[in-house]
C-alpha cells in the first residue's frame, strides 16, 4: 500500500491492516483527520455483509419459515424521485427553518440528511477539500484558487470540528444538517469559492445549528 503523502510504502501503524478499498486523502498528517471510506468506516471491511455458512439441512422435512408478503412501508418511488429532483430547493428551505413536516418531500429529505450515510458523505467531502488545500501547489493555478485554499487552511480547526460532529453517533438538528448540505453540495458556497459570506461564518453557523434544540429554534423564530 502506498501513502498519498509520501508516494512510497506506508509503514505507519494506522495504515497497516487496511484494505485497498480505503480512500486516501492527500496530506492527512496536516489536516489531522484519518483516511476514510465513503461510508466513514476505517476497518477495511467490504460493503456487503458476509454471512457464515449455514448448517446442512437434516434429512427429512424441516420447518419452513413464514414470510410476510406484504410490502414494507416506505416512501413511494414517485416521492423519492421528486425529492431527488428538488433536493437543492428542499435543502434551502430546511436550512432557513421550514418545518420538515410541511410536505412529504421535506419530510423525506430531512430523514435523508439525518441518516448516517449522508452525514458520512458530507464529512468525507469536507475532508477531501481540506486535503486539497494542503497539497503542494497542485490544482491551484489561479489567484482565486490560492485564496480559497488559504481560507480553508485558516479555518481548518472549524472544519475539523464540523467533521467530528457529523461522524459521531449523536443525533443532529435538521436545520444544521441542511446548512451543512448546502455548504458541501452548493458549488458557489464558501467552501468552494471566496464570496460575500465568509467560510468561518458559514462553518460555525452549521456546526452550532447541528446541536440546536427545538426550544432554541422556536425562540429564534419568535424573535424574527
Description of the molecule:
The chain has 224 residues and is mostly helical. The chain has a domain at 77-223. The chain is 49% helix and 0% strand. It has helices at 28-31, 77-85, 87-95, 104-114, 116-134, 143-154, 156-167, 174-185, 199-209, 214-223. Helix 4 (104-114) crosses helix 8 and helix 5 (116-134) packs across helix 6 (143-154). The protein is elongated, with a radius of gyration of 22 Å. The chain starts with 27 loop residues before the first helix and ends with a helix.
| Number of separate helices | 10
- Which value, in Å, is the CA radius of gyration? 22 Å
Mean pLDDT: 75
Q: Which structural class do the helices and strands define?
A: mainly alpha
> What shape does the CA trace take?
elongated
Please report the distance between the alpha carbons of the first and last residues: 55 Å
Order of helices and strands, N to C? HHHHHHHHHH
Secondary structure blueprint with pairings:
Elements: H1 28-31, H2 77-85, H3 87-95, H4 104-114, H5 116-134, H6 143-154, H7 156-167, H8 174-185, H9 199-209, H10 214-223
Helix pairs in contact: 2-4, 3-4, 3-8, 4-8, 5-6, 5-7, 5-8, 7-9, 8-9
Brief account:
With 224 residues, this protein is an all-alpha fold. Helices cover 49% and strands 0% of the residues.
Key terms:
224 residues, mainly alpha, 10 helices, 49% helix, elongated, disordered N terminus
